[in-house]
Design a protein that fits this description.
The protein contains 13 helices and ten strands. With about 500 residues, it is α/β, with parallel strands linked by helices. Bound molecules: 2-acetamido-2-deoxy-beta-D-glucopyranose. Keywords: Glycosidase, Hydrolase, Signal.
Length: about 500
């Protein structure tokens, strides 16, 4: 999870920004005016510069963009970011390798959810995993594996892995009219290096098992490498909060490429023809852009040609995270990863509007207008690469326990250190959905609806996340939305009448 993009790139966060912001330190709460302009050091793939980039700095960069979009009259600023739409003649025809889902058919949209918090544990999704350690210093999977007896860690994690998702979840997802599932997995499912305390249990076997369930219920699967050696973003869901040591270490980058080749070799096989359709190279990298681009190009090669150039290419869609450089607002991707060298590439943008003090203060109408303003931008971006919104949430507060990191507070109620001050109480905003008022549920429904409508401007969407532990972060749960009615049982319906 987490998020992403500031408002896609911008406000977000979600995971990125969101995520980014989410997992990183509190953003200095001040308005854009006081944010420092921070320039990411650009280094080469062999330099060590990236490892020195702290999440806080990255957050500022992202927030600077977010604020660019949102300050003063929140939505008026969007105009400044009008993206130049390439003229049709400047777009080379995209080659279409034989894919397993009609991503090129604009009448067919991705509608899906991530199985967040399962193979990669997230504190805010299953707080009991960390709570039962009785150790406040255990804040991510790295400390989970290093700050308690190994046998205890294995017992707790194994129990979680074997029970948090089941075939019945997949059945329910299909019954809700969804067609895709995004499954995050961490590198430690494949190998752990010396001194890395991550627990390699049966995550890889479970991934293949879940893919089998999806095949049975007709769901397509996007596999997402969520955490790479060294951590590519510094968020807790990258494995180790506050550490960003992937890009600065060529060994770590190579290990990542190798894992992607292993996954492509597996899932390109014909036995997965009815299930696995896409492979995301890396979730939410927030680091040296040159290293990321070089990595994307090398990873593309081994994913598209997992058995070498003399064997047939893979039928998997290659999905790349936008690094919070959102194609809705930036031309950055227009000349990268393009045909004829790179075929069937999709850009994944993550949209969160809850990891920034300004964004949290948007009125509901402005928030809906913001989401809707993205629809034509996604459509324009889709002329260049297949554009998906692979993470977003109906939640419009950061009240979910631990969403900003374990044992941190929320900006919304001012309890997060560094936040600008209380907007309102977090009571009945997250946690147990049975406490939500009818009005609040209607608002969650409107946020769901606006984003679904907007995000179908591109090739579609995957909401974060399918489920959460009982009574935790239920405003983020698709399953609870169905149960309590803020999400319709048919995702093509617009019960609140919102059409962007
Ligand atoms: C780079 O990462 C590898 C593990 O992948 C580690 O063994 C090595 O010490 C790291 N190098 C540096 C300079 O940190």
């Amino acid at each position: 999870m987490k998020f992403s993009s500031l408002l896609t790139g911008a406000l977000m966060m979600g995971s990125a920004i969101a995520g980014a912001i989410t997992n990183t330190d509190a953003v200095p709460a001040d308005s854009s005016a006081s944010l420092d302009k921070v320039v990411l050091p650009i280094t080469t793939a062999n330099s060590r510069g990236a490892s020195a980039i702290e999440p806080k700095v990255i957050t500022k960069v992202i927030m600077d963009k977010a604020n660019d979009v949102l300050t003063s009259t929140p939505l008026a600023g969007l105009k400044r970011h009008r993206r130049r739409t390439p003229s049709t003649s400047s777009i080379e025809p995209r080659a279409l390798p034989p894919l397993r889902w009609p991503y090129a058919n604009s009448a067919v949209k991705i509608r899906g959810v991530s199985l967040g918090g399962w193979l990669v544990v997230e504190n805010f999704i299953t707080p009991s995993i960390y709570g039962q350690t009785n150790n406040p210093h255990i804040i991510d999977e790295w400390t989970f594996g290093s700050l308690q007896p190994r046998s205890t860690a294995i017992r707790i994690l194994q129990q979680h892995l074997n029970s948090f998702m089941s075939e019945d979840d997949i059945r329910q997802i299909a019954a809700a009219g969804l067609n895709h599932v995004r499954i995050p997995i961490g590198y430690w499912a494949f190998e752990v290096g010396n001194g890395e305390p991550f627990l390699k249990l049966n995550q890889w076997e479970l991934l293949k098992t879940a893919v089998g369930w999806c095949a049975k219920y007709g769901l397509k699967v996007l596999i997402d490498l969520h955490a790479a050696p060294g951590n590519q973003n510094g968020f807790d869901h990258g494995g180790r909060r506050g550490v960003n040591a992937w890009a600065g270490n060529a060994t770590n980058v190579q290990r990542t490429v190798n894992i992607l080749q292993t996954m492509s070799r597996e899932f390109s096989q014909p036995k997965y023809a009815s299930s696995v359709t896409a492979l995301e190279l890396l979730n939410e990298p927030v680091t040296d852009r040159n290293v990321v681009l070089d990595f994307y190009q090398r990873a593309y090669e081994v994913v598209r040609y997992p058995n070498g150039r003399s064997s047939p290419p893979s039928p998997l869609l290659v999905v790349v995270g936008d690094e919070f450089i959102n194609p809705a607002f930036s031309d950055y991707w227009n000349d990268k990863l393009r045909p004829p060298t790179y075929e069937a590439v999709s850009i994944d943008s993550h949209i969160y509007t809850i990891f920034d003090d300004n964004a949290l203060r948007l009125s509901s109408q402005d928030r809906i207008n913001y989401y809707c303003s993205l629809k034509p931008k996604w459509a324009a971006a889709n002329n260049v690469h297949w554009q998906m919104v692979g993470e977003w949430t109906p939640a419009f507060t950061d009240c979910a326990g631990g969403i900003n990191g374990r044992n941190r507070g929320s900006r919304y109620d001012g309890s997060l250190k560094g936040s600008r001050g209380r907007i309102n109480s977090c009571a009945q905003r997250s946690g147990d959905a049975s406490t939500f008022t009818a009005k609040y549920k209607r608002l969650l429904g409107s946020m769901w609806e606006a984003q679904v409508d907007a995000n179908e401007g591109g090739i579609g969407w995957l909401m974060w996340t399918w489920k959460t532990e009982a009574k935790a972060a239920e405003d983020w749960s698709y399953q609870k939305g169905l149960q309590y009615g803020w999400i319709p049982r048919d995702p093509t319906k617009r019960p609140n009448g919102i059409r962007c």
